[in-house]
Amino acid sequence: MKKTLLSAFAGLAMVLGISLIGAPAQAEGDTALPYQDWSWSGPFGTFERAALRRGLQVYSEVCSGCHSVKLVAYRNLMDIGFAEDEVKTFAAEFEVEDGPDADGEMFTRPAVPADRFVQPFANENAARASNNGALPPDLSLMTKARKNGADYVYALLTGYEEEAPEGIDLLEGMSYNHYFPGNQIAMAPPIDDDAVEYADGTEASKEQIARDVVTFLAWAAEPELEERKRLGIKVLIFLLVLTGLLYALKRKIWADLH
Predict the structure, then answer these.
(1) Could you read off the pLDDT of 221-231 as tens digits, one per residue?
(2) How many domains does the chain fold into?
(3) I want to staple 127 with a disulfide (CB 3.0 to 4.6 A). Which of 17, 80, 121, 171 is the partner?
(4) Model pTM?
(5) What residues are paired with 175 via a beta bridge?
(6) Which long-range contacts (CB under 8 A, 24 or more apart) does 81-90 make?
């Protein structure tokens, strides 16, 4: 009986993607990350739709000039509350290369919902040439790239210092960031207070902007998270009911034998 219950909870943990022994430990040598309470944390957590919309706005206006989210298609936005017409309008603001046409030539056209998010650079060399040799990483899986990924990205975005601490000489073109490994980062501070003007009127503090774009990136990395949690709850209920039935059956069988 005890083994059955443990198996049930272990199965739920696997479906939900959570650990039975707590949050992952901080990697040795890393600066301790400030804890953030995210709406999607825990077995019942979900993505806040308003934050996702604001996060998309931040990505589009601030991040997309350098960073891609090449694993996300425009139509995926309908999964988080965007209407089909909204997605079509948003996608049509970008152009993609298509073809060949009847003459064997490539051509450009407005993006459609089936297209993936347009990348800011044609290739890696172009990206490096526009960023002093540094390659801006794709953000599709950024929050899953390390332990406590969402906390880390938030800390990184808010962890810039105007000046490096005494005794630290920054290399040319580098900025000091309290949470970046080595503390020297090629990316200049991407956000500040009022870096965007939110369409819903939310106050655009640096911390709010960081939380919103991290929410969007967390969804981009795990768009199936909410469905997986719903499935996990159904699995748990099924296992608990099955356990109860098996226990009742066991009592019935042994009662007849005695």
Answers:
(1) 999 999 999 99
(2) 2
(3) 121
(4) 0.82
(5) 185
(6) 81/49, 81/52, 81/53, 82/53, 84/113, 87/113, 88/112, 88/113
